[in-house]
Amino acid sequence: MIVGSVRAARGRVVGIFISICGLGAVVGLSQAADLADLYALARENDPTFQSARYALEAAKQKRPEAFSALLPSLVANGSTDRTLGRTRYTGTPEISRGFNADQWALQLTQPLFRVQSLLVYDEARASVEQALAQFVAAEQDLILRLSRAYFDAIVAERHVVAARSQVAALEEQLNAARRSFQAGVASISDVDDTQSRGALAQAQLVAAMNDLEGSSASLEAILGVPPPRLNALKAEANLPRPTPTDAATWVQRAVEDDPSVKAAQAAVKAADYELDRSRSQRLPSVDLVATYGGNYSAGNITEPTDFGTNVRDKQVSVQFSMPLFSGGGIQAQVAESRAKRAKAQADLTAAQRQAALDARQAYSGVLSGVSQVQALETAVAAGQSAVKGNRIGYGLGIRINSDVLNAEQQLYSTMQDLEKARYDTLFQGLKLKAATGELSDQDLQAVNGLLAPVAPSAGDRDAGSTESGKSARE
Q: Which end of the chain has the smaller Cβ count within 10 Å, N or C?
């Protein structure tokens, strides 16, 4: 009877193990989340990405603003006046006098020689380049943040499933230990040990559910809506390896093409133009100015006889301006621009080194992750055999209860490590692409192809029935 119970429990636990490992079992779950669809949703709802998008739109306006200083400008101005007064002329009584006066003018200015305006335009173009690179970095950052939150939520969900399965397995083992104690083939310490580990498993389940809640909240903060049921990695999915397989090639790409590096390079270029612009303030500026205007007056306050005037005038001139002394302001601006240029160069060096470091770490992370996944898969297979053998041995009396419990605990721990290692390796591959500026939605589509909806596991169903039974007993 005891052997039969142990065999039934063994079959149930092995089934749970298979359901957890076979995360790629595809079923028709229309409510399951597609990573590509979530990315499209995140592009619309993530406030950090929206901020980067509007920053790019604002930066793009710097170029036409700067170019406008090189084009003609037309200014219109005018005024109308009414003058009232009391006047007295020799031999005449004091009288009230009043007249109207109107003025208007159109002035056209065409810059002929303004080095400073040309440099401002070049600086604006460099600033737009910098903003474009920063936007590309924001796009890649969104992919990484979404993927990290997505993977964390999946891992947390799988940890909950594993924790529930472990609780169910320990309940079965506890029942077996009680039956063995009642039959006189086991000691009370086996029951107490199993009960203690069951309580610990319950605590681990609570912690896993708390982690799942936090991971789901992090994903919701990016999406703007509660995430639906998430797709998981297929059990047969092969994790991609870096191509090319030379770490130096990836590092060189990162130093040249990382968006942060490109943004820093554009910042250095803009700082060069700013330095030249500060120096150009000592140069003269030449403008062509054309004016056309009118002046009408119905009289004046000083003449005893009212007579009106109506004048139209045109004027064309070339205006020359050159600063001679500014109290040291130009020298101070040149020194300031020189310091900003040195800072931009230092920032570029830091960005290049950080890009090289990120590429090297991500490359190593992918390779070590693939090796770790392979080792953990072997460990899980061996752990399943160990649990099976220990349960059979326990039923036959050649294994003790702690042997079974230790084997189960080791298996569950290894399975959780395997889940985390698979997703971490996949994420390191995305980070490697981001370090070289190559990460795009196509890479996200490739990752999405490795995911599939998963059916509710046996651990979910068992946990539900266990909690219902517990509630009924209470």
A: C
